[in-house]
Structures are given as structure tokens and as C-alpha cells.
Known about the structure:
The structure holds 2 protein chains of 2 kinds. By secondary structure, chain A is mainly alpha-helical. Chain A has helices spanning 4-24, 28-53, 57-87. Chain A has a single domain (7-88), classed as Helix Hairpins, CATH 1.10.287. Chain A starts with a helix and ends in a 13-residue tail after the last helix. The relative contact order of chain A is 0.13. At the A-B interface, helix 1 of A face helix 24 of B.
Amino acid sequence: MITLTHYLVLSAILFSIGLVGVMKRKNLLMLFFSTEILLNAVNIGFAAVSHYYNDLSGQMFAFFIIAVAASEIAVGLGLLVLWYKKTGSVDLDSLQTMKG
Amino acid sequence: MEKYLYIALFAPIVGSLIAALFAQSPKNLFTGIFTSALIFVSFISSMILLNYVDMDKIVHVEMMDWISAGNLSVPFGFVVDQVSVIMMVTVTLVSTIVHIYSIGYMEHDESFNRFFSYLSAFVFSMMILVMSDNFIGLFIGWEGVGLCSWLLIGFWYKKHSASWAANEAFIMNRIGDLGMLMGIFLIYWNIGSFQYDVVFANIVNLDPSEVTWIGIFLFIGAMGKSAQFPLHTWLADAMEGPTPVSALIHAATMVTAGVYLIVRAGEIYILIPEVGMFIASLGAFVAVFAASMALVNKDLKRIIAYSTLSQLGYMFVAAGLGAYWIALFHLMTHAFFKSLLFLGAGNVMHAMDGNLDIKRMGGLYKAMRPTAILMSIASVALAGIYPLAGFFSKDKILEVAFNNGSYLLWGALFVGAGLTAFYSFRLVMLVFFGEKIYEKDGIHPHEAHPFVIYALTPLALLAIVAGFFEHSFHEFTTQLLSDYEFTLDHSVGAMLIFATSAMALSGIAYAVYKYKRGGFSENIENWGVYKLLSNQYYIPKLYEVAIMKPFTALSRFAWLNIDNKIVDASVDLIAKTIYGGGEKARKMQSGNLSSMLRWMVVGIVVLLALAIFYRPTV
């Protein structure tokens, strides 16, 4: 029997993986992947809890997040392509122009 | 009639504000003429009001509400009654003459326009002071004249002594003003109103000890403004200001505001004769005390300043003994001859290239005949010789003291009258007659402009004839003020007049006799008495040692130890902590997206931890 807990644990694991990816990865493309993982971890949580309470608003939120993530990636990838054309690299460390 | 009230009150401030527009620009004769004309307009309005005010014709207006909070309601109210109209006429008359005189006196001063702006602002404040129908308005005017006095004493602010004297006058007045404020608060506390009519109607119902306190505190205010002992030192130092200022503010008008306050609050003081007696005693003391300092001083203006101090003492004797109309009368006549004396001294000072030492003058009669005549008239009036103005008013004060049975006060004033006559003529003799010492200094004296001399003639005329208005003045002012009952026998009165006149004449005669023959020998300067007097009884020295030095030390201590080590240090500590923290936290901002993301995660973790573990107690 798969309970809410299982879903939430899965969501937490995915979130942690995404978090580590965000912190560790130096490749911009990988960074986008990690953010996708983060967002979808949250989506799982929303869908599970929504099902648990028999309330559709959680799932609606998940759809919103998917839409937002899609547009974010569209803009993000566009910028990434431009950046690659300009510098020939998608390494995060090469992206330092401002320094405190 | 309200129209004339407003014109009299606001014409000076219009002049002041317009002159202020030109304050920074070079000398403009227009400002001088314009302000003088507006003050003259104010004078004419005051004369019309003087003509109008009568037994039951008093102009009382409420221009608008000023302060109304809870039960407190203070309107901008003005009243023109028998007392204030006398003050208005005196103030505006002397002011008009001083304004015209200043056009000549200040002609080479670069801050010509600024001077007129201040001078007219002073007249406005003085008008507020005398016309207000409540104690708060009086206090505003009181502070206004104090401010203008500060501005004008320190007019030549680049001169250290001038700005020092200005500050001294201002600070001394703060002491008096604190007393005055306490008096006003006490009045409000007990009566619940600031309006004169309400206060005077209800003061009788108060506990006598409360009335005594009110009387004492108000008198402390009067002591500051009228430079009575022990707050007297500022007046002599205030002579650092331009001479027209000394004539207008420090002789004729502002310093008499204290007397005006006592006269105005007469209904309070009449209930507390013991405070009145104290005022009279202090006045008599100052009359002799200041006159004695005038005997030996060598500074032309300071001699006249001490003389003012002494005459203020006379006024306080009259006011303290309940003879309010006589105090007011002496105030008025004194304003005329004392401002004349000062303005004449201004001419002499100009002729002497700014030198004020009367020992370096002498024989100026030849060069400046009109000034010499005017100053002699003023001196005779000051000495109280029949038929000049001083005779009538000063003699009345002596009579009051005798009538009251205070023979000690009378004796002091009697001696004071002799001293006054002596120092006035010492001054006249040393300045205008005798050997021409100034020639040794290579000075070529010149008389002032004719228009300046003409401007002074009304004052001279009044110094001669003002005394003859005594009866009408008496009738007019006692419609409002309580009358003073003379119980003296007619023959005793005549004896007193004779004795006082003889005293004054002998003072004059002695001065003339002595200085005609070269004056006193130099070695009196080594006498102890001479030193005591010329050092002003060592009172300025005492203040310096007993008050200024310890206070400076205390201030230094507070600055170095409290302010620097505690207040500043703690403020600096906060700043340094934040600055240092910022310096360290700056490294966080590396511009590297990856490290920023890590910091973001740290933030999330912290917030999460807070959300989980922090439970505010509801």
C-alpha cells in the first residue's frame, strides 16, 4: 500500500537531489535540470496532498507550477544559448561580472 | 480705530521684511528711508489712538485664535488702553528719530540694509509686547525684543567682543525669562487664563502666598530685561552694539519693558506690598550702585549705560511703592532725554573716529556746537533741573519714597540724584570743554549731517517740555492705573523739591568747578574706592571666577568624559560593528551564481528551522 508518506518522502528525496544539484553543479544546463527537479518534487507533494484531502486546488497549483517552469525554461534556455554564442561556455564560474 | 491699531502694529514689520530682502545687497538708501517712513506712519497711528483713548473708549481687538488646545485658549488679542498707548507713542516716537538718525550714522556701513531690517523688527516686537492683551503675547514680544537685541548688539559680529556681549545679554536674559515663564505658568495654574482682564479680576481671590510667588517670579523676568542687580552686567557690555541701538533698545525702550511689566501687573503687586517694598529697595540700591560706577568710568557710552541702569532703579522704586503712573511718567521722560544723550554720544563717537575714551576728548564744543547743546540739554534733564523733564518725574519719585515713610530709600535716591548730576556734567565737561586732548591723537572732529541734528531736535524739545504734561498724564493714566495718594504736607513737598534741586545743582556745580580746573589729579586712580568702582565692584570678575570658570570646567569635563567617552563611543560602536560586519559580509557577494545559490539554500534552511522550532506564545 502506497500512502501519503511515501509520496512525501519521494518528494523530499527529489527535493534534496535538486538542492544538491543547484549547489554543486557548475554547468548552467545542469542547473536548469536541478531546478526542474526541485519544482517537480514540489509538484509531487502538491498532487499527493491534494489527493489525500480530496481537494483539487493542490493539483491546480501543480499545473500552475508546470506552466511557470515551462516558461522559465523557455526564457532561461534562450538566454543560455545567447550566452553560449557569446562566450562559448556554459560554465557558471565564467559568469562572474559583479563582485562585492 | 481698529484700523489704526493694525497700522501701528504692522507697519514696522512690513518695513523690516522689505528691508530684509536687500539684506545681502550693498547699501541702499531706500531701505533706510522706507523703514523710517513706516515707523513714522506707526507713530502717527499711535498718536491718533492716543487722541482717541479715553475713560471708556479703549480699543480691544481679537485678531484671530492662536492657541486653542483643551481648555487653553490664547487669542492674538491686542489692547490699546491708557498704559499701552503711552508706551506705543514713546516707542514709535523714539524709534522714528533713531531710524532717521541711523541713516546718517550707518551711512558707511556695509550692512546698512540689514541694520534697518533688524531695527524695524525690534520695533514690531516691542509693539507686540506693549499691545498684547494677554501674558503669552507679552512673552512673545518679550522674547522678540530679546532676539532683536541679540542681533543688534552683535551687529558687528566679526568683532569678538560684540558677539560675546550679544551672547552675554541673551544668556542673562534667559535667567530672567525663566522666572517670568514660571510666573506666567503660576498665573495659568491658579486662574486658568492668560488674559489680563480675567487675571486681574480673579487675582484677589487667590491665596496671598500664591500671589507673592507670582509677583516674585514676574519680577525676576523684569530684573533680567531691565538689567537690575544681580543681572545687570550685560547692559554695560551691550554698548558694543551700534550707538542708535544703544539709544533705542538699551536706553529708551527694551530695558524699560521690565518697568512696563510691573506697571501692567500693578493689580497683582498692589496685593503684595512686601514684594513691592523689595522691588523698591532693589531699585534704590541699583540707582546708587549704578550711579557710583558711572562716576569713574572713562567710556562715553558705558557712563550713559550706567546712568540708564540707575534711572531704571528710580522707576522700580516708584513702581514698587505703588506709584505706577509716576514710574510710567519717568519711563517716558527718561526715554526722551536718554535717547537724546545716546544719539549725541554717537555723534561724538563718529567725530572721534570711534574712540570712546572721554579722557581723550575735551574742547569739542567748538567743533560740534549743536551736538554739545543737545547733549547738555539732555544732561540737565537727566540731572533733574527745573523746568526740564527729568525734574518733574524724578522729583515725584523722591516724593513718593518720602511719602511712603521709607526715608532710607529716599536718602539713597537723594544721594543718587547728586551723583547723577555730577557724572552727567563730568561727561559734558570732559567731552565738550577744557583742553583739546584729541588734537594729540591727530583727530579732526566734524559735526554730523544737518538732517541728523534736525532729527534730534524733537527729542530735545520733549526733554525740555515733557514735564509740563504731568497733570494731563496723571489724569490720563490713572483712568486705568490705581492712583497714588500723597499725604505729604504741601510745605514738606516744597522742601523736598528744594532739597533735591539743591543736591542736583551742587552736583553740577561741583563737576563744572572741578573739571574747569583740570579735574582730579591722577593719583585718585590708585585709591581703593576708585579701583573698586572702575572695576564695577569686581562683579564681572566674580561672575567669571564663580560661574563661568566652574561652568567651563564642567562643560569640558562633560565634553571629554561624558560626551566623548560614553555617548560618542557608544554611537561609534554601533556604527563600527555594522561597518565591520558589512566589510566581512561583502565577501559573500562574489558574483558567482553557484555560491549565491548556496547562500540561498542556507537562508532557506534557517527560515525553515525558524518556522519549525520557533513558536511564538499566543
